[in-house]
Specification:
This protein has 487 residues and is an alpha/beta fold. The chain has two domains: 278 residues, Aldehyde Dehydrogenase, Chain A, domain 1, CATH 3.40.605.10; 180 residues, Aldehyde Dehydrogenase, Chain A, domain 2. It has 15 helices and 22 strands. Helix 12 links the parallel strand 17 and strand 18. Helix 2 packs antiparallel against helix 4, helix 3 packs across helix 4 and helix 9 crosses helix 10. The chain starts with a strand and ends in a 5-residue tail after the last strand. Bound molecules: nicotinamide-adenine-dinucleotide (NAD). Nicotinamide-adenine-dinucleotide binds next to helix 7 and helix 8.
């Protein structure tokens, strides 16, 4: 094994960038530790800089003409091969992701790694099945053509690295755009495996590049490169503002999938047990889930009955190692993030909000925060209005549907919402009234990959999913030919 390939959880992982089909390093590195045991150093990973960014975009630019010239069906064959290689390497990805990010091993094995393969298959087939719209008007034949746009930069957050990287790269590649992926510095390792799998699947050099490093360094250099034609970002609103400025400078379309502060509304006509169980489930992955329903909004009349069931379900949670089958709440990603989450709760206390359960770092070690419920003093409390991104939920009640919807829509976010009701009419009414990119009724996290996905207000710009992402990665052209003017 070369010095730039190390063993992580029994799996060989490259610590360098992957540019133009080759592994290349940087003069400096950054350290990656495991959230499962902060004393466990996993790797020193190449820390990209402006020259790394330049080289990666050059590789993508050089690969662009040949990749764009392939038919969508030919590109789909490449992506299907990659998906098959992923499916044959589930354990490799799962073992590394579980120690790097602390996602549950069982979920990775059973669902999440395969979902990466599904992302590639789904977009490959959608792009290959695209039928150009053709119609006649004003004495001409009109045709809508999707032109590949050029190199795309994909930037992902630390909380679901494998799933989000594959979800965001797939439409770019299927649409004909080579990609440069920059994963987050707190969980960079599964992206490195993805590069190896792409290599094994025979992806042409330069079509799929991965650069490692810090957002403000190599990330900022990538998004500022004027040769980049699309930027697809998932992360915080704070970083999105910087990236959006760079995109504006170069007049480059950019999508941003950002934070959430989703409401979980429970009406008195709901299946109370199902609602309480799902509410308790919002602590999964230590609440490091953008789509989580973190504001519990419960109708006055069922307050006590709901809380009794909710607490009983929360009591069944098991805080533990992400590799153990019975663990339901895994460690948090990083000591800094644990401290940030605790800071929110301490400020809530100072503000007069009532901490009903939890509210502290678990005393017996590990990066765990106790599942926490806060009854805010007012709807303006910071703990209600800002994304905490940890196992912290707020609890508020409402008298009637109007008040419930008003509270649901009372933050600057609008990523997702969850509604529990037994009434079809209410499901329609409230589902339409909640201002969010996705609203689930009596369920959560069920996803159809062809449906639009994204956020309103500070939760994002643009939509991913299905043809929405493919159109983002294309330059649409209208071709008009005068009737009767050609043979
Ligand atoms: P972050 O914004 O700090 O970082 C995200 C990525 O952006 C990282 O790769 C980082 O290195 C990079 N980055 C940071 N500053 C940059 C800059 N100036 N230029 C270029 N790149 C830069 O977010 P995070 O802490 O990694 O992730 C958590 C956030 O992501 C939460 O707000 C969460 O809600 C959100 N998120 C949203 C979705 C969604 O689909 N809407 C999904 C997952 C996570």
């Amino acid at each position: 094994m070369s010095e730039h390939r190390i063993e992580v959880a029994g799996v060989e992982v490259a610590t360098q960038h992957y540019i133009g089909g080759r592994r290349v390093g940087s003069a400096s590195t950054f350290e990656v530790r495991s959230p499962l045991d902060w004393d466990w150093k996993l790797a020193d990973v190449a820390r990209g800089d402006a020259s790394t960014a330049r080289d990666a975009v050059t590789a993508a630019e050089e690969a662009f003409p040949a990749w764009a010239a392939l038919s969508a069906k030919e590109r789909a064959e490449h992506l299907h091969r990659l998906a098959d290689v992923i499916d044959a390497n589930v354990e490799r990805v799962a073992q590394v992701e579980t120690v790097d990010m602390a996602m549950r091993l069982q979920s990775l094995r059973e669902r999440l790694v395969h979902r990466g393969a599904e992302n590639f298959r789904n977009y490959a087939d959608l792009a290959a099945g695209y039928e150009e719209r053709v119609w006649s008007s004003k004495g001409t034949e009109n045709r809508v053509i999707r032109m590949p746009a050029g190199p795309a930069v994909i930037i992902t957050p630390w909380n679901a690295p494998w799933m989000l990287s594959t979800w965001k790269m797939a439409p770019a590649l299927a649409a004909g755009n080579p990609v440069v992926l920059k994963p987050a510095e707190w969980s960079p390792l599964s992206a490195s495996i993805l590069a190896d799998l792409a290599d094994e699947a025979g992806m042409p050099p330069g079509v799929l590049n991965v650069v490692q490093g810090i957002g403000e360094e190599v990330g900022a250099a990538l998004v500022a490169d004027p040769r980049v034609r699309r930027i697809s970002f998932t992360g915080s609103p704070e970083a999105a503002r910087h990236i959006g400025r760079a995109a504006a400078e170069n007049i480059v379309p950019f999508t941003a999938e950002l934070g959430g502060k989703g409401p979980l509304l429970v009406f008195e006509d709901a299946d109370l047990d199902a609602a309480a169980k799902k509410a308790a489930w919002q602590y999964d992955d230590s609440g490091q889930v953008c789509l989580a329903g973190t504001r519990l909004l419960v109708q006055d009349s069922i307050r006590e009955a709901f809380l009794e069931r909710f607490h009983a379900y929360v009591d069944t949670h098991v805080l533990g190692d992400s590799r153990a089958d019975d663990t339901t709440i895994t460690p948090m990603i990083h000591p800094d993030h644990l401290a940030r989450v605790d800071g929110f709760v301490q400020r809530a206390r100072d503000n007069g909000d009532r901490v009903v359960r939890g509210g502290r770092v678990r005393p017996d070690g590990g990066l765990f925060y106790e599942p926490t419920l806060v009854e805010p003093a007012s709807n303006d409390s910071e703990i209600v209005q800002r994304e905490v991104f940890g196992p912290v939920l707020t609890f508020q009640t409402f008298a009637d549907e109007d008040e419930g919807v008003r509270l649901a829509n009372s933050t600057d976010y609008g990523l997702s919402g969850i509604v529990y009701t037994g009434s079809r009419e209410r499901a329609e009414r409230v589902g339409r009234a909640v201002r969010a990119g996705t609203v689930w009724v009596n369920t959560f996290l069920v996803r159809d990959l062809t449906a639009p996905f994204g956020g309103c207000r500070i939760s994002g710009i643009g939509r991913e999913g299905g043809h929405f992402a493919l159109e983002f990665h294309a330059d649409l052209k209208t071709l008009q030919i005068l009737d009767g003017s050609t043979g």
